[in-house]
Structure to design on (248 residues):
């Protein structure tokens, strides 16, 4: 049985005080959740939000991590820095980082291996663009992202994969539940071939892209979908809680 994981990705939104206000509102709303509840927040918010969620069932994640242990990497943040603030999860290779900040499958791989070595749980993002889907190369793109991005991973079950079709992010266009299920099934099959069928059957794979309370139940009913990575709807306590409590 794979435990469902619903994670918010706040992206570049909410100051520390706004983040604290959001989680304070969220805490009672998700207190009875039977899934893992995570908020991945801007680096500047980690300390304050981390203090605010103490004693609750909400876990904290970061939105990126550098692959080096430490050193001359102005503006970057290391795994140790995150760990000292109680961070447990880290998003790696989000399509926005690939699109705007030069992230590649190779840098995704380096960050993933470092995060795993340090004991952070990577949420490794994969997904095709609209152009790639329309030209029929979705599977080829996903296979490449997995082959390179997860090269050298020793224990697949220590990470989470997020399938986020780029065309569904922030656009209001969700993949249909069947489409998402089928593509995540393909990802699981690729993982089974690269790693092993048993570990592929244990790894959690989230769907991300315009997920909201209104479509969460249908998406979550799909066999292959083990959770969600939520952008816009994670910025409102009621909406995020509505997704967390999709089965209530
Ligand atoms: P939206 O939920 O705003 O479409 O964003 C999805 C996403 O990118 C989560 O990482």
């Amino acid at each position: 049985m794979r435990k469902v994981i619903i994670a918010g990705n706040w992206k570049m939104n909410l100051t520390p005080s706004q983040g604290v206000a959001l989680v304070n509102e969220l805490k009672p709303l998700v207190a009875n959740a039977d899934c893992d509840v995570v908020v991945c927040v801007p680096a500047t918010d980690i300390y304050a939000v981390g203090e605010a969620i103490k004693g609750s069932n909400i876990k904290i994640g970061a939105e990126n991590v550098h692959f080096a242990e430490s050193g001359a990497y102005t503006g970057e943040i290391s795994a140790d820095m995150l760990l000292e603030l109680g961070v447990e999860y880290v998003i790696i290779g989000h399509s926005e980082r690939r699109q705007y900040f030069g992230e590649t499958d190779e840098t995704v791989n380096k960050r993933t291996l470092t995060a795993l070595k340090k004991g952070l749980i990577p949420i490794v993002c994969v997904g095709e663009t609209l152009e790639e889907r329309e030209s029929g190369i979705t599977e080829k793109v996903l296979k490449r992202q997995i082959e390179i991005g997860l090269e050298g991973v020793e224990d697949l079950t220590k990470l989470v994969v997020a399938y986020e079709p780029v065309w569904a992010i922030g656009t209001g266009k969700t993949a249909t539940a069947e489409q998402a299920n089928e593509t995540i099934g393909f990802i699981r099959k690729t993982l089974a071939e690269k790693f092993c069928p048993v570990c592929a059957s244990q790894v959690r794979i989230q769907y991300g892209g315009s997920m909201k309370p209104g479509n969460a139940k249908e998406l979550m009913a799909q066999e292959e979908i083990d959770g969600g990575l939520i952008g816009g709807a994670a910025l409102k306590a009621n909406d995020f809680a509505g997704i967390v409590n999709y089965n209530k």
